[in-house]
């Protein structure tokens, strides 16, 4: 009888021990090969964004985080990753972002590497499209939700103004509210207390487990993006010469935007705006509003993290395709106010590296489509980013202001 | 407050098995610890309805009191008399809460306050008891056994739907040790097969593939008539796989947990995609539900029509009974156009299938029958079923109207 019991339960007990053992053991991190890192750095995969291992190893080398959203996927020959690879720049971008990754998603998902960025540099492409009345779209947040990164933050949070604000915002998303442990911890922090006791132990155990999962499964990120970078490299001239690049960008872009009047990449136009869809979008953005909402507070979360770690950040505010904006009736005056508000938030706290391209949406071949940088737009970015990253920058002197978390700031356009 | 949704995550299984350990030890030694079993079951049921779900818990208590009143009221009545009118009224009262819960969202666009997770399955059980009392196949019901049957923890949220007498027999009869070890062996196998189904295959189809292919189908909808893109075919198959592996996995968990408690709850699935025709399919898919519908809707409708000679032709009788049967099943899923169309689709499919089977019987000599025709039959059935699940999924509603 006992024999039979063992036959039934033995394998189960053994399997359970093995699984728990593997997940809770302090596994070595394993070295990631150079080619693997190259591919992962441009994969735009949520596994990389929400994971810790790839980012940690990339940042230990010459990689620099480029935070952003959908524009990062516009991998033409002038994309920062292509230029850096082709001309063997001393840096290579680690692309972090995807459609829908707004400030709050970045705030959570970048937790693991923030400590590593002490005294280092970051490039941050901030889209005004994030700054809607709603702010971070909960569905997108859930898609990129990383329990690993959130656990890291939950263990780190002390309950100060920024922590309390973040906890309240995170409770408004769906994914963290679903897990009892997350929810309870967030309530703690929202009440101004760090997570203690059993919850802390549970979070630590979970973090260990998730780190091991990340270490085991981050090997299976699949992406063909590196091929796109390689294809782009082939089109670039041998010498890194601005005028020559500018000319080539114009030539390539002209070829790609033959069949529409908005200066949009033809493939994008055909897929997204063709078949009569464009006509239905005429005037559709007349009521778009980027001046108010929680995104300004969420953005402040990132600013404070950068400041605390003495990270020097180059901000880039990309424009909107001017023809597209005119066609859809986007109120440009309001848009300019939103940009000014954002710049005030940056400048008044001592963030000096801000490249405002928001008025360049009308330049030919600057935008690849409606709201995304391409060709000459990427070259303009490069004009700023290359010197920023290759030359030493004086330390920034930050003076943070918690008022940027408040509803007063979220609802104002009065920036002086 | 701790909240535990049945079979939702690894912790649940751990806590469940820990809670059931004394039950296991007892059964191994030939004893059923009735009080402990009742208490631990209650605890797990309470933990289903804590926190934000407390309203559902209150609804469950109210619902149970309601069914107790109806079933025992009818039992009392049935011991003296047996009028059809009273029986019909009793059944209607018994299904009233479910009807309200199903109709409310269609009318006022928010879920009913009377609803709770598992209301359908409890209703099936209660109605079954009333029907058997009416038929006289059951003479008596006792309070505690009835409550135990209704609130049997492993199956409370989504079945399988057991039958009162079968359940009661298992409960009263403690299995022999070798027999119980056999049950435990099956339980472990089902549990792990369930993990494979629900958390690996269900995840692959439902979480990894389905959103992508749905996105492609939505992106391509303008390029095709009615949005009938190739990706939509993918949606049909991927969704079907997801539906099966998710629900079959869940059912395996429920059966496994029952087995641990020494109750041989009937299985819900028997390789449904190997069905040779639609009729065969319904003998393999969500079996406890389809058998319930067969016994308590299809058969009863058939008898009713024959007894009252409403339709003479027996073929017509079964066709009408199928229509009613599947229409009710459609409405039970929810009052939306796609559930109802799903019901009608299956009724039509099974009627056509019957016509074909009669044709085949008549022309047995002329029609070939070999493994290729069988493969064709399985493939055809599979495609028809997957298409029906596309309707069921509600994705067409998103594709066309949203």
Automatic annotation (TrEMBL), chain A:
The keyword Membrane applies. The keyword Secreted does not apply. Pfam families: DltD. Keywords: Cell membrane, Membrane, Transmembrane, Transmembrane helix. The chain crosses the membrane at residues 6-27. Pathway: Cell wall biogenesis; lipoteichoic acid biosynthesis. Belongs to the DltD family. This is Protein DltD.
Automatic annotation (TrEMBL), chain B:
Its EC number is 2.3.1.-. The chain crosses the membrane at residues 12-28, 35-52, 58-77, 84-101, 187-211, 223-245, 337-356, 376-396. Pathway: Cell wall biogenesis; lipoteichoic acid biosynthesis. Keywords: Acyltransferase, Cell membrane, Membrane, Transferase, Transmembrane, Transmembrane helix. The keyword Transport does not apply. It is a multi-pass membrane protein. The keyword Phosphoprotein does not apply. It is an enzyme of class 2 (transferase). Its main location: membrane. It is found in: Cell membrane. It holds the Pfam family MBOAT. It comes from the Bacteria. Belongs to the membrane-bound acyltransferase family. PANTHER family: ACYLTRANSFERASE, TEICHOIC ACID D-ALANYLTRANSFERASE. O-acyltransferase that catalyzes D-alanylation of both teichoic acid and lipoteichoic acid (LTA). D-alanylation of LTA plays an important role in modulating the properties of the cell wall in Gram-positive bacteria, influencing the net charge of the cell wall. Catalyzes D-alanylation from DltC carrier protein. This is Teichoic acid D-alanyltransferase. The gene is dltB.
């Amino acid at each position: 009888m006992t024999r039979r019991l063992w036959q039934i339960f033995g394998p189960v007990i053994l399997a359970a021990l093995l699984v728990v053992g593997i997940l809770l053991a302090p596994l070595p991190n394993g070295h990631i090969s150079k080619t693997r890192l190259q591919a992962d750095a441009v994969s735009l995969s949520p596994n990389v964004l929400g994971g810790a291992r790839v980012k940690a190893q990339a940042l230990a080398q010459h990689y620099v985080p480029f935070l952003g959203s959908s524009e990062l996927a516009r991998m033409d020959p002038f994309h920062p990753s292509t230029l850096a690879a082709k001309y063997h720049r001393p840096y290579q971008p680690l692309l972090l972002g995807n459609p829908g990754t707004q400030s709050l998603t970045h705030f959570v998902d970048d937790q693991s590497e923030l400590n590593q960025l002490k005294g280092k540099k970051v490039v941050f492409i901030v889209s005004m499209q994030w700054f809607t009345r709603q702010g971070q779209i909960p569905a997108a947040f859930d898609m990129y939700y990383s329990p690993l990164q959130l656990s890291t933050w939950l263990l780190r949070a002390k309950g100060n103004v920024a922590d309390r604000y973040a906890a309240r915002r995170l409770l408004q998303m769906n994914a963290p509210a679903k897990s009892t442990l997350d929810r309870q911890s967030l309530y703690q922090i929202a009440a101004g207390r760090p997570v203690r006791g059993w919850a802390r132990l549970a979070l630590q155990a979970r973090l260990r487990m998730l780190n091991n999962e990340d270490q085991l499964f981050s090997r299976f990120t699949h992406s063909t993006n590196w091929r796109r970078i390689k294809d782009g490299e082939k089109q670039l001239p041998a010498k890194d010469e601005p005028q020559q690049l500018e000319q080539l960008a114009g030539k390539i872009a002209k070829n790609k935007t033959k069949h529409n009047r908005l200066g949009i990449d033809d493939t994008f136009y055909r897929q997204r705006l063709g078949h009569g869809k464009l006509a239905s979008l005429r005037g559709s953005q007349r009521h778009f509003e980027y001046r108010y909402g929680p995104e300004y507070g969420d953005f402040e979360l990132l600013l404070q993290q950068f400041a605390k770690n003495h990270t020097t950040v180059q901000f880039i505010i990309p424009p909107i395709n001017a023809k597209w904006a005119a066609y859809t009736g986007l109120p440009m005056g309001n848009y300019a106010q939103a940009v000014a508000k954002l710049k005030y938030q940056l400048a008044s706290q001592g963030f000096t590296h801000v490249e405002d391209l928001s008025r360049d949406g009308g330049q030919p071949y600057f935008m690849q489509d409606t709201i995304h940088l391409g060709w000459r737009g990427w070259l303009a970015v490069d004009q700023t980013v290359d010197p920023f990253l290759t030359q030493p920058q004086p330390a920034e002197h930050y003076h943070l202001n918690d008022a940027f978390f408040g509803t007063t700031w979220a609802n104002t356009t009065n920036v002086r | 407050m701790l909240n535990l949704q049945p079979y939702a995550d690894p912790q649940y299984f751990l806590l469940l098995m820990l809670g059931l350990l004394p039950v296991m030890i007892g059964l191994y030694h030939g004893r059923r610890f009735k009080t402990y079993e009742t208490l631990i079951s209650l605890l797990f049921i309470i933990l289903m309805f804590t926190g934000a779900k407390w309203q559902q818990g209150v609804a469950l208590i109210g619902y149970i009191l309601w069914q107790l009143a109806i079933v025992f009221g009818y039992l009392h009545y049935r011991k003296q008399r047996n009028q059809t009118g009273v029986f019909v009224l009793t059944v209607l009262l018994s299904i009233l809460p479910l009807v309200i819960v199903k109709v409310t969202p269609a009318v006022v666009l928010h879920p009913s306050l009377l609803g709770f997770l598992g209301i359908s399955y409890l209703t099936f059980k209660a109605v079954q008891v009333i029907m058997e009392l009416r038929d006289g196949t059951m003479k008596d019901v006792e309070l505690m056994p009835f409550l135990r049957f209704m609130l049997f923890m492993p199956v409370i949220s989504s079945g399988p739907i057991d039958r009162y007498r079968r359940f009661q027999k298992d409960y009263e009869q403690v299995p022999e040790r070798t027999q119980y070890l056999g049950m435990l062996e099956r339980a472990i196998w089902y549990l792990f097969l369930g993990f494979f189904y629900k958390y690996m295959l269900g995840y692959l189809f439902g979480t990894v593939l389905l959103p992508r292919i749905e996105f492609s189908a939505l992106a391509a909808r303008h390029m095709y008539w009615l949005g009938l893109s190739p990706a939509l075919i993918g949606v049909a198959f991927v969704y079907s796989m997801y539906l099966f592996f998710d629900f079959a996995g869940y059912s395996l968990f429920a059966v496994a947990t029952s087995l641990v408690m020494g109750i041989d709850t009937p299985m819900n699935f028997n390789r449904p995609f190997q069905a040779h025709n639609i009729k065969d399919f319904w003998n393999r898919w969500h079996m406890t539900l389809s058998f319930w519908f067969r016994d308590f809707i299809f058969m009863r409708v058939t008898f009713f029509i024959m007894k009252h000679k409403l339709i003479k032709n027996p073929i017509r009788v079964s066709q009408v009974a199928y229509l009613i049967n599947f229409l009710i099943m459609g409405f039970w899923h929810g009052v939306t156009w796609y559930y109802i169309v799903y019901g009608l689709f299956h009724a039509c499919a099974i009627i056509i299938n019957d016509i074909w089977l009669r044709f085949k019987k008549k022309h047995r000599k002329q029609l070939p029958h070999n493994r290729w025709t069988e493969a064709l039959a399985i493939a055809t059935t599979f495609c028809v079923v997957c298409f029906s699940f596309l309707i069921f999924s509600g994705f067409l509603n998103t594709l066309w109207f949203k």
